[in-house]
Amino acid sequence: MNKNLPTKANLGQFENKSLLIVDDDDPFRNRLSKAMENKGFLVTSASSVAEGVQKVKVSAPTFAIIDLRLNDGSGLDIVKEIHKVKADSRIIVLTGYGNIPTAVAAVKSGAIDYLAKPADAEDLESALLADKDKKAMPPENPMSADRVKWEHIQRVFELCDRNVSETARRLKMHRRTLQRILSKRSPK
């Protein structure tokens, strides 16, 4: 066995198996909650920053999967709250828009890992139970380079209030090229 590969803890090693899932995408949160319950976690879920912080105050979880961008704010606020109450919690930050500054901010706030959506229950379980002293395993189904590029363009487009000209200027691309990209379906 390669010593550089991460080892995965067994959920049975943890006395408290509580898992908080915070995501404003209801179908995703419900599917993930059921999948993680089937793996043995005791799941509670929330759909907003306010609801997530409230659940942390009632009972700090051992594990957490928090979406970075929620309708009422940043998931990092929940990460910080969990870290204040229970510093040894294992927290994974999820996002549809992966970039280095937000990954660094997530880890500084107390997260142990940062995964891009769509992440499946297997990847999340592996990340939650990974040995903290080893490097994380690469994801089984990472986003393609085309998908990452498309996600970035969509994010900038949304941040520019869906203004094509402003988005093209910020991305340093021709407006017509951007319009062609925006008119196509997202790559797999």
Task: Describe this protein's structure.
With 188 residues, the chain is of the alpha/beta class. It folds into two domains: 14-129, Rossmann fold (3-Layer(aba) Sandwich), CATH 3.40.50.2300; 145-183, Homeodomain-like (Arc Repressor Mutant, subunit A, Orthogonal Bundle). It contains eight helices and seven strands; from the N terminus they run βαβαβββαβαβαααα. The chain has helices spanning 26-38, 49-58, 76-85, 100-109, 121-129, 145-159, 164-171, 175-183; strands spanning 18-22, 42-46, 63-67, 69-70, 73-74, 90-95, 113-116. Strands 2-1-3-6-7 form a five-stranded parallel β-sheet, sandwiched between helices. Strand 6, helix 4 (100-109) and strand 7 form a beta-alpha-beta unit. Helix 7 (164-171) crosses helix 8 (175-183). It is elongated. The two termini are 33 Å apart.
Number of helices: 8
Any idea what the radius of gyration is?
18 Å
Give the DSSP E fraction (strand runs of 2 or more residues): 15-25%
What overall geometry do the principal axes of the alpha carbons give? elongated
CATH homology group of the largest domain: Response regulator
Decide which structural class fits the backbone. alpha/beta
The largest β sheet comes out as: 5 strands, parallel
**CATH class designation of the largest domain:** Alpha Beta
How many domains? The number is 2
Mean pLDDT: 82
Based on the structure given, which CATH architecture of the largest domain is correct? 3-Layer(aba) Sandwich
Would you give the CATH topology of the largest domain? Rossmann fold
Q: Can you give the helix content as a percent range?
A: 40-55%
The separation of the N and C termini measures: 33 Å
In the sheet with the most strands, the strands line up as 2-1-3-6-7
Q: List low-pLDDT spans.
A: 1-7
Listing every helix as H and every strand as E from the N terminus to the C terminus, the arrangement reads EHEHEEEHEHEHHHH
- How many strands appear in the DSSP assignment? 7
